[in-house]
Amino acid sequence: MSLVAEAVVSAESTRRQAMLHSDAAVLRTLMDDDCVYVHSSGFVDSGAAMIEKIAAGEVRYRDLRFSQERITHLLGATVFVYRQQATMSLGGSPHLSDTLCTAVWTTDESRQPRLVSFHSAHTPAHTPAHTPAHTPASIPASTPVSASSPLEETP
Fold it and tell me: What is the DSSP track for 91-135?
């Protein structure tokens, strides 16, 4: 893996920790202000707006778990696709989220990783119309986010 690819993988891990700890200062160093941040509700924020919501406590993550991770390195971008299960509060109200996510990273002029796009969508098991018959046959156990959580790469 190239040094740039290693830096991007490290940045995604750092972003996950910063989201869990509501660390807006770290998030500002990682997310592009113009990042397109699409929530599972369909609502769209800029990176700067999402960071401000976290800083203000409007969005607070209590627990994050990740599974089904794939990382693809492309020319000029790295794409992470994964399942994210979150226990959080939105506007002070408890919220559980089970989503499939795509995070797209590039590097800026100084080769520092920047998150430029994030998109999440509810998993089929989390949609209101879900019935047990529609549950995917095999969903691997999720792993909590931690500094040692490995990110798997696709060849």
Answer: TTEEEEEEEEEEEEEEE-TTS-EEEEEEEEEE-GGGSTT--GGGS
Q: Which CATH number fits domain 3-125: 3.30.2420.10, 3.40.50.12160, 3.10.450.50, 3.40.640.10?
A: 3.10.450.50
Burial group, residue 92, by CB count within 10 angstroms (0-12, 13-18, 19+): exposed
> d(Cα 83, Cα 100) in Å, to the nearest integer?
4
Query: What is the pTM assigned to this prediction?
Result: 0.79
- What would the 3-class secondary structure string for 8-29 be? HHHHHHHHHHHHHCCCHHHHHH
- Are 143 and 65 in contact by the 8 Å Cβ rule? The answer is yes
**140 Cα distance to chain centroid:** 18
- Residues 23-74 have pLDDT tens digits of 999 999 999 989 999 999 899 999 999 999 999 999 999 999 999 999 999 9
H or E stretch covering 60:
strand 59-74
